[in-house]
Amino acid sequence: QVQLVESGGGVVQPGRSPRLSCAASGFTFSSYAIHWVRQAPGKGLEWVAIISYDGNNKYYADSVQGRFNISRDNSKNTVYLQMNGLRADDTAVYYCARDRATGTHFLLFGMDVWGQGTTVTVSS
Amino acid sequence: QSALTQPASVSGSPGQSITISCTGTRSDVGGYNYVSWYQQHPGKAPKLMIFHVSNRPSGVSNRFSGSKSDNTASLTISGLQAGDEADYYCSSFTTSSTRVFGTGTKVTVL
Predict the structure, then answer these.
(1) Which terminus of chain A is more exposed, N or C, with fewer CB under 10 A?
(2) pLDDT means per 10 residues in chain B (110 residues)?
């Protein structure tokens, strides 16, 4: 079945640089853009970043621009989120989600498949 | 990239209709018909309910409908059911080629 599975979360010290992974299965991964969305404890959803189907286009929220880097390996059906210089306010559940559109119309259609999330806790 | 504004909570009795508003600016909601809505039950991942302001993905009940006027989008749930009790978030495309979510609305079925 169509599925996204996140991994790489855990307790991380401030300033550290963990990498999250999002493994896809059940669909033609290389045709879809992938988003990262996070949710701090007890708070709302926050869009973090997107990478286009071919990896050539990447966009970030202001809150992570310059600190986080999104990438993908279509041969491994996996998207990554490299998080640098973590701060306490980066503590959240991080979800990866598939953009509903294939090809070049990403960002416009919403996110139709979501992973279960991986929790990142920034604490010393 | 300020979050879109939603009411913190909306409630209704079973069978009633409720409407959740989502207010942004001309740089997001008002500038594009690219508003989507998500339902999130506690401890679960969000679920896409509406895309492109008023379109339902396959499998979403027709009790859910969306609309937009100027800078405000709305989600209406008709025939309210106990299973509709959840948090709801709007989201819009922005002029910066990003997405922004709303502040979220907790729907309570009385």
Answers:
(1) N
(2) 96 97 97 97 98 97 97 98 98 96 98
In contact, A52 and A33? CB cutoff 8 Å: yes
Rounded CA-CA distance A13/A33 in Å is 30
Q: What average pLDDT score do residues A77-87 get?
A: 97
Contact: A114, B47; criterion CB under 8 Å: yes
Strands A45-51 and A19-25: unpaired
- B92, B100 Cβ separation under 8 angstroms: yes
Q: Which residues contact B73 (CB under 8 A, 6 or more apart)?
A: B21, B22, B24, B29, B35, B37, B53, B66, B67, B90, B92
B51 Cα to chain A: minimum distance (Å): 6
Distance from CA of B67 to the nearest CA of A (A): 15
Closest partner CB to B97 (pick from A44, A59, A117): A59
Judge whether B23 and B5 are in contact, CB under 8 Å.
yes
Nearest CB to B46; choose among A45, A100, A107? A45
Decide: A51 and A58 in contact? Cβ < 8 Å.
yes
Strands in chain A per DSSP E: 3-7, 10-12, 19-25, 32-39, 45-51, 58-60, 68-73, 78-83, 92-102, 111-114, 118-122
